[in-house]
């Protein structure tokens, strides 16, 4: 029997993209699957429409928007409770190739230290160009940046490699990682939750593996786009940045000042003084709010998810 994979799609409104994502997933060639959709507080009648159109998909309704991390956690817990060996988490603005899960699982079985597997992610609108082949730390200007962003796909991106960071747009994560590392930090609404989790995974001794034979197509930020150009977008971004560097900065204050100061200046030049001010305000909030333990499968942590 092949490992059981729970396929988990996170959705906030946008039924058309969600249904296209689910149709591609229902067509994959991997035999041992369960399908889940987290309706993350949609104001559309998303859950009812999915239940009618896709009766094989289990729907988890959060009742409110828990953010990316909290939304994924709400689906990961019941999926693991039902015996999943892996959880394949996806944004709803993605479409997959038929063999995406087969390729990821095959690579994951090669080494017990591999805990997170990432497909090659290309643009949905132009499938010759890469959105992400993972991410890495850049010293100057200081930031975590996508590998291959906007580059034409080619042999340089066809070699499996171990990664520092992987975005949660589409990841296969093993059960053992959730049991040992815990869940995503639901103190992030969006941004930095994936970088945070990548650090925790590597600190626990697990490998994040890029698998280029597995391919996924991304429409890019369809949900977050509704926040953009609003004051709350930059404020939430700043909050997430402050939280991240408080947890992982070395040293925390200096890292936050350099890294987040660079982003604040860049966004101010691009989008005006309001964007800069909101980002800085948010960063101060994120840095000053109390931090509790990470959510885990026993039900403790920032968001107190129901236990497994």
Overview of the structural elements:
38% of the residues lie in helices and 22% in strands. The chain is an alpha/beta fold and 308 residues long. Strands 1, 2, 3, 4, 5, 6, 7, 10, 11 and 12 form a ten-stranded mixed sheet that branches. α1 (15-26) links the parallel β1 and β2. α6 runs parallel beside α7. The two termini are 24 Å apart.
Briefly, what is this?
The chain is built from 9 helices and 12 strands. The longest helix has 20 residues.
Outline the biggest β-sheet: 10 strands, mixed
| Gross morphology | globular
Tally of contiguous helical segments: 9
The residue ranges in which pLDDT falls below 50 over 5 or more consecutive positions are 302-308
Elements, N to C (H/E): EHEHEHEEHEEEEEEHHEHHH
* Main structural class: alpha/beta
Radius of gyration: 19 Å
Could you outline the blueprint of secondary structure elements for this entry?
Layout: E1 5-11, H1 15-26, E2 33-39, H2 46-53, E3 57-61, H3 67-81, E4 86-91, E5 94-96, H4 100-108, E6 114-123, E7 130-132, E8 135-138, E9 143-146, E10 161-162, E11 170-174, H5 175-181, H6 193-203, E12 207-218, H7 231-248, H8 252-271, H9 273-288
Parallel strand pairs: 1-2, 1-4, 2-3, 6-12
Antiparallel strand pairs: 4-11, 5-12, 6-7, 6-11, 8-9, 10-12
Helix pairs in contact: 6-7, 7-8, 7-9, 8-9
């Amino acid at each position: 029997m092949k490992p059981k994979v729970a396929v988990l799609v996170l959705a906030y409104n946008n039924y058309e993209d969600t249904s296209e994502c689910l149709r591609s997933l229902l067509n994959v060639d991997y035999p041992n699957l369960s399908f889940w959709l987290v309706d993350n507080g949609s104001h559309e009648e998303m859950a009812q429409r999915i239940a009618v159109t896709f009766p094989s998909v289990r729907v988890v309704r959060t009742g409110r928007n828990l953010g990316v991390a909290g939304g994924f956690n709400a689906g990961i817990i019941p999926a693991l409770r039902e015996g999943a060996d892996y959880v394949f988490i996806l944004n709803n603005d993605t479409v997959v190739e038929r063999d995406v899960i087969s390729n990821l699982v095959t690579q994951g079985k090669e080494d017990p230290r591999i805990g997170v597997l990432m497909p090659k992610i290309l643009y949905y609108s132009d499938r010759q160009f890469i959105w992400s082949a993972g991410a890495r730390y850049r010293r100057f200007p200081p930031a975590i940046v996508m590998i291959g962003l906007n580059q034409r796909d080619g042999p340089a991106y066809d070699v499996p490699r171990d990664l520092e960071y992987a975005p949660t747009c589409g990841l296969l994560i093993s059960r053992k990682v959730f049991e040992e590392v815990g869940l995503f930090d639901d103190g992030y609404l969006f941004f930095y939750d994936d970088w945070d989790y990548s650090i925790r995974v590597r600190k626990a001794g697990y490998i994040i593996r890029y698998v280029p034979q597995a391919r996924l197509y991304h429409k890019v930020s369809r949900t977050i786009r509704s926040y953009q150009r609003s004051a709350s977008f930059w404020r939430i971004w700043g909050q997430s940045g402050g939280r991240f560097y408080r947890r992982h900065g070395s040293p925390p204050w200096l890292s936050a000042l350099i890294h987040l100061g660079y982003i604040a200046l860049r966004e101010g030049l691009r989008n005006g003084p309001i964007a800069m001010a909101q980002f800085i305000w948010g960063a101060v909030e994120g840095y000053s709010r109390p931090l509790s333990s990470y959510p885990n499968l026993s039900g403790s942590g920032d968001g107190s998810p129901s236990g497994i």
